[in-house]
Design brief:
By secondary structure, the protein is α/β, with parallel strands linked by helices. The strands form 3 sheets. Strands 1, 2, 3, 4, 5 and 11 form a 6-stranded mixed beta sheet that branches. It has a 5-stranded mixed beta sheet with strand order 8-7-9-6-10. The chain has a 4-stranded antiparallel beta sheet with strand order 13-14-12-15, sandwiched between helices. It is globular, with a radius of gyration of 24 Å. It folds into 3 domains: 88-170 and 258-264, Periplasmic binding protein-like II (D-Maltodextrin-Binding Protein, domain 2); 173-250, D-Maltodextrin-Binding Protein, domain 2; 268-355, Alpha-Beta Plaits (2-Layer Sandwich). The protein has helices at residues 2-37, 48-59, 68-86, 100-109, 121-129, 149-157, 191-196, 198-204, 216-223, 236-240, 290-300, 332-345, and strands at 90-94, 114-118, 135-142, 146-147, 160-169, 173-176, 186-189, 209-212, 229-233, 244-247, 257-265, 276-283, 304-312, 320-328, 349-355. The protein has 12 helices and 15 strands. β13 (304-312) and β14 (320-328) form a beta hairpin.
């Protein structure tokens, strides 16, 4: 009976080996075709819209044994490897290693890219502006706590442009060298993470000092090796920095999600395209009805706004910038007219990005 099983196993493995040879041959053929597209691409070998279409199309097919997430993961690495054949890609992210931004960067670009940890959001954007990295990934907005103000300020200050947005479900973990939560007197984390867990902290650690850090992963790095302190950080940080997980999923809202922005250096003004989202920032004249004048074109040209936020400009007291996202579907001409009209009624306007 054992001999029969060994023979069956050998037959199956022989078939797997032959399939692997076919897969390898096809992968090399794909890489060769990808290489041919390099000189035909205008700006970059990385095309997030095209890759999103490829992954969505493949994940949507009836695949039998493999689940859609498994297909997306496998093909994400194939796309990453094919990109490396075209040209190496450098990506900066808000670090250190183990941060949610790190997770997004690696999920977006795969293991074939080179990744560079940056201590602050402004450092990520500066690395892209100075061409130290081709791309940067920064947190943009959270479903609970709203916009990440450092990112909004940086998008105005730095010469970068949003080329894609990536959404990630956020789970927060309380971790420490300690094993008992009763021993914790201080909790370190990014301000957004502390805010997203404020009910939990008030209930379980009402007397603990809350200390802000540049990122959640940096918080884990700080508390590593220290007693009586804890960090709120992503789960991978517990292994990276040798910390015990005291509690998991401590965010106040289970549907906690963060939107991340993928940025590149802004060489030319982004062009408005069909079936895209446009993100802009503008200022107002100090006179009655100025905001109304800026919003009128969107109604006049039937343009759908998906977001509007305000933020102090930091230039003059009580001077604000407004951040707006709007959708361009098939109404490209109307969207172009709307943007042109908006430029005419505001003293400052910056297109932050055009993306799918």
């Amino acid at each position: 009976m054992k001999k029969e099983k060994k023979q069956q196993l050998k037959k199956i493995r022989d078939k797997i080996d032959k399939i692997d040879e076919k897969i390898l041959s096809l992968l090399n053929q794909r890489a060769e075709q990808t290489k041919k597209t390099t000189n035909l691409k205008v700006d970059s070998v990385y095309d997030p819209k095209r890759e999103k279409e490829v992954l969505s199309k493949l994940a949507g097919k009836k695949s039998g044994t493999l689940s859609p997430p498994a297909i997306e993961q496998v093909y994400g690495e194939i796309l990453s490897a094919c990109r490396e054949v075209q040209a190496p890609i450098q990506v900066s992210f808000l670090g250190p290693e183990g941060s949610n931004t790190d997770e997004v960067a690696k999920k977006q670009f795969g293991s074939s890219a080179s990744f560079y940890s940056q201590p602050t959001i402004l450092d990520v954007l500066a690395a892209v502006e100075n061409e130290e990295s081709q791309y940067g990934i920064v947190p943009l907005e959270n479903t609970i706590e709203g916009p990440v103000v450092e990112t909004l300020d940086g998008l105005i200050e730095k010469n970068v442009s949003i080329v894609s947005q990536i959404q990630l479900k956020i789970s927060h973990y309380l971790m420490s060298q300690e094993k008992d939560i009763k021993n914790i007197s201080k909790v370190y984390s990014h301000p957004q993470a502390l805010a997203q867990c404020k009910k939990y902290l008030k209930k379980t650690l009402p007397n603990a000092d809350l200390i802000e850090t540049q990122s959640t992963a940096r918080a884990a790095q700080i508390v590593s090796g220290k007693k009586k302190v804890a960090a709120i950080a992503p789960r991978p940080c517990s292994l990276l920095y040798s910390l015990n997980i005291i509690d998991k999923n401590i965010q106040d809202n289970p549907s906690n999600r963060t939107m991340f922005a993928l940025v590149e250096k802004k060489i030319i003004e982004p062009v408005v395209l069909k079936n895209s989202k446009v993100s802009v920032a503008f200022s107002l004249d100090h006179k009655p009805g100025s905001l109304h004048e800026c919003l009128k074109p969107f109604r006049a040209y039937n343009i759908n706004l998906t977001k509007i936020q305000s933020r102090p400009s930091k230039k003059n007291d009580w001077d604000y910038l407004f951040f707006i996202d709007f959708l361009v579907e098939k109404n490209l001409k109307e969207a172009e007219k709307c943007l042109k009209t908006l430029r005419g009624v505001t003293p400052f306007l910056k297109v932050l990005g055009v993306f799918a």
